[in-house]
Design brief:
295 residues; alpha/beta; Nitrilase/N-carbamoyl-D-aminoacid amidohydrolase; globular
Length: 295
């Protein structure tokens, strides 16, 4: 049975390397996190490569992998060896012409506890994800594991309160957000502080509104692989927040780090008893939320 308390970790890394090297690196860091007591461990979004969505290039589809191949085999064995849950975000090749931005949730025995496919797909300058990724079709899910019931969303999903709510309503203790987000270097001075602040604030808000723990795992480093561009400076700042939005652990902007915090289900229940937002939801009045706009 899952425990009333368990430790979670997010790993913040520079992943601007080839797949084989990134895999070896991530395995090493997961081992490190487990040795420090982490029981549920999340890697950043698209762990196995540089952030290739800076351009629209069909050659980048070669970075994708079929289900249950390289990443699953490696991390399934690792999860079983270490007795931990691992969240592995990867570039999924579903079939020729259909690709997803996905994440395995691998349980302590090496089995698949769940698969999540990113639901919200952005299309911004140097974040051209719609070119690569078909929107997820598995919906929002909370996955029971041997350590706890966890929800996994991915990056752009973090801006949507509906995604957090629907996952929390299924009983997730923690919302994990594997992430690849950063500044356009030429805009950082003018907009950087507000952009980063908004990113943290919206996820802290999800923690408060749903009485859940929130854990965001970002990458770091300047990825400037295209000629004549400034690239993307990934801002790191991975964090774990408690059910009142309190910051339990936060990383730097530019260092590889492991963050660990404890999930306390008794505390979570106490918070929800005192701030009964779920009790007071007016579900009879929310029907219009499924409309694109209320004209």
């Amino acid at each position: 049975m899952p425990k009333k308390k368990y430790k979670i970790a997010v790993i913040q890394l520079n992943l601007n390397d080839v797949a084989e090297n990134n895999l070896k690196k991530c395995i090493s860091w997961v081992r490190d996190a487990a040795s420090q007591g982490a029981e549920v461990i999340s890697l950043p979004e698209l762990y196995s490569s540089h952030y290739f969505c800076q351009s629209e290039d069909v050659d980048n589809f070669a970075l994708a992998e079929p289900l249950y191949s390289t990443s699953f085999i490696a991390f399934s064995a690792l999860a079983k060896e270490l007795g931990v849950v691992i969240i592995v975000p990867f570039f999924e090749k579903r079939m020729a012409g259909i690709y997803h931005n996905s994440a395995y949730i691998i349980d302590t025995d090496g089995s698949e506890a769940g698969l999540y496919r990113k639901m919200h797909i952005p299309d911004d300058p140097h974040f051209y994800e719609k070119f690569y990724f078909t929107p997820g079709d598995l919906g929002f899910k909370a996955f029971p594991t041997q350590k706890g019931k966890i929800g996994t969303l991915i990056c752009w999903d973090q801006w949507y309160p509906e995604a957090a709510r629907l996952t929390a309503l299924q009983g997730a203790d923690v919302l994990f957000y594997p992430t690849a987000i950063g500044w356009h270097p030429l805009e950082k001075e003018q907009y950087g502080e507000n952009q980063h602040g908004a990113w943290m604030n919206v996820m802290k808000g999800h923690a408060v509104a749903n009485g859940v723990y929130v854990a965001a795992a970002n990458r770091i480093g300047l990825e400037q692989y295209l000629p004549d561009t400034a690239g993307i400076q990934f801002w790191g700042s991975s964090f774990i927040a408690g059910p009142q939005g309190e910051i339990l652990a936060q990383a730097s902007h530019d260092q590889e780090e492991i963050l660990i915090a404890e999930v306390d289900l008794d505390l979570q229940e106490n918070v929800r008893q005192n701030w009964p937002f779920f009790r007071d939801r007016r579900i009879d009045a929310f029907g219009d939320i499924t409309k694109r706009a209320i004209d």
